Amino acid sequence: MTTTSGSTPEMRHHLDDPGTDQPGGLVGEVARMSAEERAEHEAEVADVVAPDRDIEVEVGETLLEMRDVTLSFGGLVALDSVSFSIRRGEILGLIGPNGAGKTTCFNAMTGVYRPSSGDVLLEGRPLGRLKKSQITRRGIARTFQNIRLFGEMTALENVVVGTDARHRTGVLGALLRLPRHHREEREGVERAMALLEFVGIADRAADKAKNLPYGYQRRLEIARALATEPKLLCLDEPAAGFNPAEKEELMGLIREIRDDGYTVLLIDHDMKLVMGVTDRLVVLEFGKKIADGRPAEVREDPSVIAAYLGVPDDDVA
Ligand SMILES: Nc1ncnc2c1ncn2[C@@H]1O[C@H](COP(=O)(O)OP(=O)(O)OP(=O)(O)O)[C@@H](O)[C@H]1O
């Protein structure tokens, strides 16, 4: 995957002076563009963010499969023979009451925990005993329920760290200052900048992550995950703590990510939001899968209604 072919003069300018929000900075330049110029600029950014998006992907083929996965913590069975597939190009929602096993599913897919039995397969190959970093390289990236950023690093640096997962030169290449290392470093910064723009926080690229507003931090986590060029992006409650307008904006971003060719797995408690953005839903309760289907079907499913008994109708609507 090449990542720099679409880098634009605007991006390069911004790299020289990241974070500037003043007239002359990228944000100001974009604001002054005509509608036509802006559309062209956005297409150029999209080229950098998702360079492969025009390559025809077999939307609908299985990307990840949870095959009969059981995961126990001592006597507690957090996942009980759970099987479902995530199809390429879809937004799949994973829902269920508190403690149902949603985060444990993410942890099983990303190598935090190993299933006690069963398999997680990515593109038909079991993840087996791969380490977290190896799974990231195979193509699964995630964000966390509790934001985990490098607080003392800038927003841009946080995303550049994500691009490192794709670098082919290792520590030795860096020590020897190989030309390829320099090129990868430069490409990483350009791609990181494009991703910050894509998620809407390029104006704060030079700020330390810990100083960013909460909503920016959530978007920064998504940019960092995208930097690894994942085949599957797992978002664990990305809208937690957002007001309705912020949630709506975030859903727009998640749709854009999918439209750019990524596959998204989404956990969220807000039923309205999940129903509104997902193509399909898997419902867990007490570690077992109780439903799997289109949002409109799942919301009518008696076992799902029973699992959510007590949730006001408004929240399920
Ligand atoms: N590391 C752990 N050690 C012991 N028990 C755990 C561990 N992680 C999760 N559990 C238990 O496994 C069950 C499933 O937890 P999990 O966090 O996956 O649920 P969840 O559906 O993500 O819940 P929530 O919506 O509250 O985040 C819960 O009973 C939880 O207490």
From TrEMBL:
Keywords, in A-Z order: ATP-binding, Nucleotide-binding, Transport
Domain ABC transporter: 64-311
Entry superkingdom: Bacteria
GO terms of molecular function: ATP binding
Location of region: Disordered: 1-25
Claim: Transport is one of the keywords in the record: yes
InterPro entries: AAA+_ATPase, ABC_AA/LPS_Transport, ABC_transporter-like_ATP-bd, BCA_ABC_TP_C, P-loop_NTPase
CDD domains in UniProt: ABC_Mj1267_LivG_branched
Signal peptide positions (record): none
Name the record gives this protein: Branched-chain amino acid transport system ATP-binding protein
